[in-house]
Amino acid sequence: EDLGRQYNYLNFSSYARVFASLIIGEIKRAEKPVRVLDIGCGRGIGRQAEPQQEIHEAADEFWGIEPDETVVPGDDQFDNFQYALMETAELPENSFDIAYSSMVMEHVSDPQSFLTALHRALKPGGSYLFLTPNVHSFIPRVTKLCHDLRIDEFVLRLVQGQQQVEEYHYPVQFKCNSPKQIGSEGERLGFLPPEFAYIEGSGGRSYFPGPLRLVYAALKAKRQLIKNPARLATMICKL
Questions:
Q1: b/e per residue 203-226 (b: at least 16 CB within 10 A)
Q2: Suppose 91 and one of 24, 121, 122, 200 were both cysteines; which one would form an S-S bond, judging by CB atoms 3.0 to 4.6 Å apart?
Q3: What's the rounded Cα separation, in Å, for the pair 151 and 154?
Q4: What is the per-residue pLDDT across 84-126, written as a single tens digit (0 to 9) for each?
């Protein structure tokens, strides 16, 4: 609630830290023992292993699922690990107190199947926290337009470079990362109304190389003048 009331523009050092602190807060408030599920765990939150490890230490049982088989978890990284999507993972029903994901929801191709599987895995009263690009922010809007025009791979290579695109980029869908999409799908399944908070750091600068720095400067000036949190680059949701 505190985060949702603030205008969080360039006033934090790491979105991974912010997100991990929210998850750990949820763990501390939950009734023990607490079982936590990391969906699309990858190589950590924002590719940082330390926040993920802190969540593991706060939880009583820590599970992870990841579809990319090139990701190899450490021996003690998870109590249970599967190579799977949320929709295909073999998870016990009504068993997780908290599930979370970082930069996953924008890639979900079938929101109904994803959220149905999530609802089935969570305990009654369990919560799902996720962090995703805000579809109403500038860069995600441009990305969605490029995706719709089928030029997103080409444009991303221009601004980010071939190597980074091949290593980090997965196709975006933008079917489940707006308040309207999440609210309607969640209500249909029986979730409570979602809560939202928005943050933005300086990471977006990497998408504005060379002359495009002028565009970033203009966008930054607009952010500082028109303080609309719902237009910041990253959305955090609790469902």
A1: ebeebbeeeeeeebeebbeebeee
A2: 121
A3: 5
A4: 999 999 999 999 999 999 999 999 999 999 999 999 999 999 9
Higher model confidence: residue 100 or residue 146? 100
How far apart are alpha carbons 150 and 195 in whole angstroms?
32
The residue type of 119 is: H
Q: Give the separation between CA 160 and CA 113, rounded to whole angstroms.
A: 32
Which residue's structure tokens are 């949820």?
Answer: 26
Determine the length of the chain. Answer: 239
* Helices then strands, each counted (H, E), the chain: 9, 8
Q: What is the model's pTM?
A: 0.89
DSSP 199-229: EE-SGGGGG--GGGHHHHHHHHHHHHHS--G
Q: Are the C-beta atoms of residues 27 and 59 closer than 8 Å to each other?
A: yes
Q: Give the whole-angstrom CA distance, residue 156 versus residue 159.
A: 5
Exposure on the CB side of residue 203, measured as CA atoms within 13 A: 14
Q: Which pLDDT tens digit goes with each residue over 21-47?
A: 999 999 999 999 999 999 999 999 988
Distance in angstroms (rounded) separating the CA atoms of residues 25 and 100: 13
